[in-house]
Design a protein that fits this description.
By secondary structure, this protein is mostly beta strands. The chain has a single domain, classed as VC0467-like (3-Layer(aba) Sandwich). Helix content is 10%, strand content 35%. It contains three helices and ten strands. Strands 1, 2, 3, 4, 5, 6, 7, 8, 9 and 10 form a ten-stranded mixed beta sheet that branches. A hairpin with a 4-residue loop joins strand 7 and strand 8. The protein is globular.
Length: 187
Amino acid sequence: MDVMPGSLLISSATLVDPNFARCLVLVLDSDADGSLGVILNQPSDTPVAEVLDAWEPVLSDPAVFFRGGPVEGNAALALGELAGPDGTEPLPGGWRPLAGGLGLVDLDEPPEEYAGRLSGLRVYAGYTGWGAGQLEGEVDEGSWHVVPAVPADLFTADPERLWYDVLRRQPTPLSLLATLPADANLN
């Protein structure tokens, strides 16, 4: 599968960089200039309400900041999913469509514009980024496996299990990676 917006990157078992070990990245943008994404399975202990209290009613559980990646850790990026088909009324102000019903939400807009319009919303501190051709090279060398995302992956209430759950639903031999211990030396 080609890297494209809406696809998932599963870190391989051999990827030991602490920023990306056993993580899942949702690709938000990918073109000739590079790629950008957010890590889906690294929730923090910081409630979003401590910083963006007005957004609390529309957040998905757990309502904490997620570590989106090592780039721009002080910047907040919000990923939302529209609830149902949205062809009859205008999209909320500050909505940037990505793939399907997914989009980026401008947190400077009033949250009331999104009330009842989203089936999921997560806020990420930072993001992942690759320069031109860099991610494709990492995929070719086996650091990442590219698979389609399932909507339930993006807003799961149990993000710590997500790496295993996504691997398990893949065809073999990729699904077998879910059984590897965190420290292969213990095997």
